[in-house]
Amino acid sequence: DVQQLASFQNRLAGLKSCFALTSSTVDSAPVCPECGFRPSAESVEATASAVLTSLDEELDRMLWEWRETLLQNLSDLTVQERLSLLRTPQKKLIDEFLTTREFPDPLTQAFVTAAREALSGLQKVVLKLDDLRAAFLSGGLPCTVDEAKRRFEEYLSELVKGKEMGKVRIILE
Fold first, then answer.
1. Where along the chain do its domains lie?
2. Each residue's pLDDT tens digit, 11-21
3. Long-range contact pairs involving 45-53 (C-beta distance under 8 Å, separation at least 24)
């Protein structure tokens, strides 16, 4: 959830740190000479250690929830049918995730792209060799390269008419 992550990032960014600030510095001056941090101006509801522990636990919980949601979505029967439309490297990444039930470490852009594509509603378009042959023969043979390209493009355009091009995957039969 984008809002959940943004909230987490804001709370994490709200923590102040200064490596030059020490107990003796705080005892001798109300403001850190290095960063200008003024401890007395801060409302302290919990120690920094407790806040960091809480944020770490929250991050673990968010990661677990995201993993479970992704596993559930990728296990859906409709999505399972479309996994065969992924390119082999993408399918391998998704299959490994479904088998191990763990995100790859490190989490790569290739995995994110594969998951996004698997869930994007890919559409299977079957290109039948007999129909392709008929499309080529429709104008007679022999033909020029330009005529062959035009015939193929017309045949392909007819197959994918009304579909979102970025989601179409062609299967040869």
1. 124-172
2. 888 888 778 77
3. 48/15, 51/15, 52/15
